[in-house]
Specification:
The protein is about 35% helix and about 20% strand. By secondary structure, it is α/β, with parallel strands linked by helices. Strands 1, 2, 3, 4, 5, 6, 7, 8, 9 and 10 form a 10-stranded mixed beta sheet that branches. Strand 5, helix 5 and strand 6 form a beta-alpha-beta unit. Helix 6 packs parallel to helix 7 and helix 9 packs across helix 11. It is globular.
Length: about 300
């Protein structure tokens, strides 16, 4: 369902009213823990910005938790160890049920990085090379495995390494390529590019195959020129990032989070961030394939109706 059709659906249901359920409502925590990602990555950067804005609201706080990424966050959410989680939409769709969305917050870019000019020059040339797919428990690793499979590639070795370690390995020639999924530019990769010439490979040749296997999970996008020293834009695969919760998260807290996403959108974009940023009325509510939390849906109707 597109953002427009999802919005139309929400607006159409606005007149239906709200059913008030009787019974005891548990006391909600005033501090929410948000599963983010690795140091130097976009998830943790966004989580820290969201934490700062929430604290400034005076009504609740968010603690940004360092994790390995999407798959790790989904497990933590399922186990009740965090109240909020950031996840790639494809990882969330592949997980078992029990999660709902509060909003679609920004787009990730799947980045396949190699040394320049002596590294592989195309996705096909990754055959027989040493590749880091991403950190264990990360959405990047899950997506990268899908890309490699769709391309029919069998690397000489495929490892799952945290970004900080994979960047060092690439710089020192211990691996030939690393996959990373995040905003652009990703700070830690930008630091690597300042020390060592790198290039981003075009991964979009496998996009038609991916869309056949996983409809609506991916989009064609472009990493802007200038990112990591590139002379021209680079085609890339885009994946939506979702802010997730469990269905039983307190309605009032969900509404407060929605208000922050709407009212402080400009403050939630990292300085220097390029490319596609969501946090607009039409995009926040377009969280398919994951349904919106009931209180989030209701709050978006109230705010946008």
């Amino acid at each position: 369902m597109t953002g427009v059709s999802r919005r139309s659906f929400l607006w159409a249901g606005a007149a239906a009213g709200t059913v008030v359920l009787a019974g005891c409502v548990p006391t909600a925590p005033t501090v929410l823990t948000l599963g983010c990602g690795e140091p130097g990555g976009s998830y943790l950067q966004f989580g820290q910005l969201l934490s700062d804005v929430a604290r400034g609201s005076g009504s609740f706080e968010i603690t940004a938790l360092q994790t390995e990424g999407s798959v790790d966050n989904l497990a933590l959410l399922s186990q009740g160890r965090v109240e909020l989680a950031l996840s790639l939409a494809d990882s969330a769709a592949a997980a078992s049920g029990g999660v709902v969305a509060i909003g679609r917050v920004y787009q990730n870019y799947l980045q396949c990085l190699v040394r320049s000019p002596d590294g592989p020059r195309s996705l096909a040339e990754l055959a027989g090379t040493r590749v880091s797919l991403g950190a264990p428990g990360s959405g990047a690793a899950a997506t990268a495995r899908r890309v490699m499979d769709a391309a029919g590639l069998s690397p000489a070795s495929a490892t799952e390494r945290p970004l900080r370690d994979a960047a060092v390995d690439l710089e020192r020639g211990r691996i030939d390529a690393l996959f990373w999924s995040g905003g652009v530019p990703t700070p830690q990769i930008a630091e690597l590019a300042a020390r060592t010439p790198i290039a981003v490979l075009d991964t979009t040749p496998v996009l038609p195959t991916l869309l056949q296997r996983y409809p609506d999970a991916y989009v064609a996008t472009t990493i802007p020129a200038g990112v990591y020293g590139a002379d021209s834009p680079v085609p890339a695969i885009g994946v939506a990032n979702l802010l997730l919760a469990r269905p039983d998260l307190d309605d009032t807290l969900v509404e407060r989070v929605v208000d922050v996403l709407i009212d402080d959108a400009a403050r939630l974009v990292a300085p220097g961030a390029l490319g596609i940023q969501y946090l607009t009325p039409a995009s926040l509510i377009d969280t398919l394939p994951i349904a919106l939390h009931a209180a989030a849906e209701r709050r978006y109707r109230e705010r946008y109706g």
